[in-house]
Amino acid sequence: MRLPRRGLYAITSAAICRDALTLLRAVEQAIEGGAVIVQYRDKLNEAATRHRHALQLQDLCRQAGVPLILNDGPAADVATLQLDGMHLGEDDGALVEARRLCPDALIGATCGQSLEKALQAQAAGASYVAFGAFYPSATKPLAARAPLELLGAARAQLYVPLCAIGGITPHNAAPLIAAGAHFIAAVEGVFGSADVKAAASAYAQLFGA
Q1: pTM attached to this predicted model
Q2: pLDDT tens track for 111-127
Q3: Which H/E stretch holds residue 33?
Q4: DSSP conformation letters of 121-161
Q5: Taking the C-alpha atoms of 74, 31, 138 and 128 in order, what is their torsion angle to the nearest 10 degrees?
Q6: Neighbours of 84 (CB within 10 A)
Q7: 85: β partners
Q8: Domains of the chain, first to last
Q9: 3-state secondary structure at position 94
Q10: Half-sphere exposure of 117 toward its Cβ, with a 13 Å CA cutoff?
Q11: What span, in angstroms and rounded, lies between the C-alpha atoms of 125 and 129?
């Protein structure tokens, strides 16, 4: 599956990963609200449960035409489960090896505040790169802050899409989009809301038509 051009990148929160029904309902609502990419991030369940949930999410996302990205890989799981892709953190293993195992997968790379890491990730076969945190983040409160100017510099030197993450809400996302972010990633901003569909829609509307 190909990456969309731009839009909301919804990342599952811990609270909705406790059971499959809650997870699937929340992700369905996020897609209905306008999420163009979904990342399955689950730090709670054991591997067998994560695999089962990932396959259920894959069916849901494919019906909607939305890529499903597995957080933290591993590449072998993505290949075995035939998932759309994976997102690799700064300590999640070699992107080159992931690309070797999954030549057709979407592979994202966390680059923090480093344009140099992003250039290396692009050369190693990344499908997109993620920068952040741009604002204080409830998901990763100790994350270092990335400057807004980083997006402009990255847009000038990279050809892969850019994802901005970290404490981003519909109220503070516009400058990041204007600076060059193709995707705005949100965890609690979407899945921490009582109305997931409306929350996702508030982000999606920032990208216009």
Answers
A1: 0.95
A2: 999 999 999 999 999 99
A3: helix 20-33
A4: HHHHT-SEEEEE-SS--SSSTTPPPPPTHHHHHHHHH--S-
A5: 50
A6: 22
A7: 69, 106
A8: 7-207 (3.20.20.70)
A9: coil
A10: 19
A11: 10
